[in-house]
Amino acid sequence: MKSSVIPRLTIVVPCYNEEPVLPTSAPVLRRILQRLTDHQQVTTDSKILFVDDGSQDRTWALITDLRQQDTCYTGLKFSRNYGQEAALMAGMQAAQHHADLIVTIDADLQDDPQLIFGMIEQAREGFDIVYGVRNDRSTDTWFKRTTAQGFYWFMGKLGVDLIPNHSDFRLMSQRAVAALMSCQESHPFIRGIIPQLGFPATKLYYKRQPRQAGVSKYPLRKMIRFALDGILSFSVAPIRAVLYAGLLICGGAFLVLLWILIQHIRGAVVTGWSSIMASLWFLGGFQLVAISIIGEYVGRTFTEVKHRPRFIIQSDTYSSAFTPAQPVVPLTRDHSSH
Description:
Layout: E1 9-15, H1 22-38, E2 47-52, H2 59-69, E3 73-78, H3 84-95, E4 101-104, H4 115-124, E5 129-134, H5 142-157, E6 166-173, H6 174-181, H7 190-193, E7 201-206, H8 220-234, H9 237-265, H10 273-306, E8 313-316
Parallel strand pairs: 1-2, 1-4, 2-3, 5-7
Antiparallel strand pairs: 3-8, 4-6, 5-6
């Protein structure tokens, strides 16, 4: 199915302390948007939406300056830092009311922005979701590459449908974003939710570029937190693993007790102080791990039932860029084959 209407596009760019990269990346996105409008692939009132995730530098000041230079630049500013997932959700939530197509991309433009042209073409062919997928991880360190592969493998074993080597570079239609917004988790794992939406999807491959400026916003601590979010949001397998491990340990303890009883009947002296202490330490550590895993689930339930907002927007120059007479016009599709 192909679209018969020129779509309105919004490019959502989450930003956290991006002062070093915005002066370079913003013009690149502007040129891409201009080419798309020149070729009538998107409407002339399409926008670039920067979401300032509580930056501590001049990120918001730069976004404001860009807005004054060109009305295609718009922004949302959080009241504090809420995290990249919240920034993505906020940008898409705002854009779904005004845009037919929404592209999300990191501000450092390590993900190839030229792929956006191909994404628009795939959207015109009828795909609601177009994933940008890396075909080369040579720019990553050995540790990051290995842990990423291990994460995708483990999530696959848990039955979670992820797109390997896909981050947050993607295109989504307005109806796909609306479906995503209907998910009410306080801390949604976006990469796991989107494949479950069920809309027509495809992939485009690219080679990621080295970072030109600034520093990575995903240190080891955040990567571990991100991996835990993915695992705990989609599976109760860790709790079951604790159950099976507990049963295995109990079975082993029963065999040890049986062996000690046999030795006692035979009159053998069992010294084993060190082995007893080691067993106590092992069981104590296992119990703490088990309680921690269960506590993570309880804590997440506690967070969800409070129904606090995912984020608080302090400033919004995006929504005001559209007059009430400019709502999104749903794309109409003909039924010709492609």
